[in-house]
Design brief:
globular, single chain, 0% strand, 70% helix, mainly alpha
Length: 187
C-alpha cells in the first residue's frame, strides 16, 4: 500500500518539479485552496470512478490518490473550455483505465485477501447490486466508463463529451452494453 501524502507536500513538490513558476507563497496557497475546494466538491465523483475499477478499499484509495496527482498536474493549465466536472471525469477515467491496463499486464502477481467480510450485507438488493457490479467489471474499460457515466445520470451528450464520442455513438454503445450485460452469466 502506498504511503498517504499530505496535499500540501504533494502540491509543492509537483509545482517545483513541473517547472511551474509560482511567484510567491500567496499564489501557491490560493491555488492549493482552489484545488482543495474543487476536490471537495467532486470527491464523490472521483471515488465513484475509482470504485468502478476496483472493489478493494486500499486499491480504490490508491486510485483516488493517483487521480488527485493527475488532477493537480493539470489543474493550473485547465482552460475551462469544458465544465470542470467533465474534465475531472476525463482525468479520473483516463487515470483508472491506464492503471487498470498496467495491472492486467502484471496480473501474474497473487494477492492475499481475507475471504470474509464482517460488514457484508446480504439482502436481495445488495445481491443484485453486487451481481451488476461483477458484470460491469467484466466489461472493457471504455464500456465500463460509459456505463459509469450513465449510472451517474449524465445525459448522452455529456457522456459523449467526456469520453470523446458522438451522442449517437453513446446511444448505440449503451444499447450494446446492456445486451452484453444481460447475456453474461452470474459467475
Amino acid at each position: 500500500m502506498k504511503k498517504r501524502i499530505v496535499f500540501r507536500v504533494v502540491f509543492r513538490n509537483f509545482a517545483a518539479s513541473n517547472g511551474r513558476k509560482i511567484q510567491n507563497r500567496t499564489t501557491m496557497n490560493a491555488l492549493e485552496k482552489q484545488f482543495a475546494q474543487t476536490v471537495a466538491e467532486h470527491k464523490s465523483t472521483i471515488y465513484t470512478v475509482c470504485y468502478m475499477f476496483s472493489q478493494d478499499a486500499d486499491e480504490v484509495n490508491d486510485l483516488f490518490q493517483e487521480v488527485l496527482v493527475n488532477l493537480w498536474k493539470g489543474f493550473e493549465s485547465f482552460e475551462h473550455r469544458s465544465d470542470i466536472r467533465t474534465w475531472i471525469y476525463r482525468v479520473a477515467l483516463n487515470t483508472c483505465i491506464s492503471i487498470d491496463r498496467k495491472k492486467k499486464r502484471r496480473s501474474s502477481e497473487v494477492r492475499l485477501t481475507m475471504d470474509i467480510n464482517l460488514f457484508e450485507d446480504r439482502d436481495e438488493d445488495t445481491k443484485q447490486v453486487d451481481m451488476l457490479h461483477k458484470r460491469i467489471s467484466k466489461l472493457q474499460p471504455f464500456d465500463r466508463a460509459i456505463v459509469l457515466l450513465w449510472l451517474e445520470n449524465l445525459s448522452y451528450e455529456e457522456i459523449g463529451q467526456i469520453v470523446g464520442i458522438s451522442t449517437k455513438n453513446v446511444s448505440v454503445r449503451l444499447f450494446r452494453i446492456r445486451e452484453q450485460l444481460k447475456n453474461m452469466s452470474n459467475d
